[in-house]
Amino acid sequence: MQELLNRHISVDYIRNISERIGHAFVGTGEATGIGHAHGKAILIGEHTVVHGAPAIAIPLPAMPVRAVARPYLPDTDSDVTSDKSFGFVAGLADTKFSPSGPRVAVEEALRQWGLGAHPVRITVDCDIPFARGLGSSAAITSAAVRAVADLYGRRLDTAALYDFVQCGEQIAHGRASGVDARAVLATGPIWFYQGAARAVTTELDAALVIADTGMPGVTERAVTGVSRLADRDPVFIQRLVDHASGLVHVAANDLAAGDAESLGHTMSDFQRILVSLGVSTPSIDLLVSTALGAGAFGAKLTGAGMGGCVVALTSTATAGAVSRALRRVDALRTWTVDTRGRHLSTWPASTLGHGGRQ
Ligand code: MEV
What we know:
There is one protein chain. By secondary structure, the chain is an alpha+beta fold. Helices cover 40% and strands 22% of the residues. The chain has helices at residues 2-8, 11-20, 101-112, 136-151, 158-173, 179-183, 219-232, 234-257, 260-276, 282-293, 319-328, and strands spanning 33-44, 55-71, 85-90, 120-126, 190-193, 196-199, 207-212, 298-302, 309-314, 334-338, 343-347. The strands form two sheets. Strands 1, 2, 3, 4, 5 and 6 form a six-stranded antiparallel β-sheet that branches. A hairpin with a 2-residue loop joins strand 5 and strand 6. Helix 7 (219-232) crosses helix 8 (234-257). It binds (R)-mevalonate (MEV). (R)-mevalonate binds at residues 42, 46-47, 49-50, 133, 173, 176-177, 179-180, 219, 223, 303-304.
């Protein structure tokens, strides 16, 4: 009899029962759901993508996020918070916490799945540094929604996940184009335009050196600043958006043709647009000029700017020299990946994670 029971009590069965009896027994800790996502770097097109131009982004699988969802138990749950792990609760009607992107997205998912009365605790383990333009908010939100879907056995297709993540991203960015939500789940470089993503062909044999200024970027402030500029001077912004759109098309051709030199120039041209939009900073400008001086084909900020990271395109042979030059002028850390986002090296060696100057 016991053997029969063991054989038939599957995870699905436990989930099914737990849903019907309102999780009365799942405090044993057995009922968990797991979700994954990863970081991203925007190769070209940040900010102007919010105003209608395309963008190209690459996934960073070397920066994974893992979320675990459990039914919320008021008296037994506690968070262990470190510089890369934290927890949050979603679905409590009466909460003292202010809305965060991941919580808003999970609550929308619970509501749409008819689970509004089932609060969950999400524990997140994140190897993406926070507030550095590398997609931490979209990746945490994606992993958290996936974990809740897994916990309750809900079907979650790409379109539904994108919509939930965008609910959260509107909180994090103020106005989110959706490029982050697509890139943190992508398996290769993507072309993003007006909500939709497709794979980009790349024949490029080169490296990307990503360098951290050590200053947190504030996506919402940067995006709002550009939107205000657009309201004040729509003609100026439209001119930049048209120019940006042309550059992103050139970059896609460069990737397809494997032309690193041309792509580098295109990225540097795009940095000039970002400077005109007011989202570069002296630290970013210093890292960009240092990368170029050390032999990079091109360099620009990546993400929202106003802090955060710079991305430099280099040959695989010069990546080490560019990374060392960036460290000499005070980059807090560097990551070197190939043009599909696969990890080549990091500095310091244990650099995944958080911290940095605030
Ligand atoms: C942030 O990674 C990219 C921005 O273009 C904002 C967005 O597209 O939502 C600055």
